[in-house]
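Worked example 2:
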Amino acid sequence: MKFVLQVEIRIKADQVAAFMAKLAENAAAARAEAGCLQFDMLVDPQDATRVMLYEVYADDAAFQAHQQTAAFKKYLAEAVPLLASRERHAWKRIE
């Protein structure tokens, strides 16, 4: 069963450009992973500080492997401090 992660993000107002650059780097690395099937970055057209990520992995193991990559660890260390809030929701996609 596919593992889906939805992340609701609020960026600190003065950190939008810096965060988006780090997010793009993380997304590119994730998309290159064998177990990552989809990695979408969405921004609220009315509020650039609101972002949603929609990530689909082949299974739980693929998501766990993603979290162990150097790119993801760098994202956590460098990008997450730029956020006002971050809320993650895990889902199982019904086929």
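The chain has one domain: 2-93. The longest helix spans residues 16-31.
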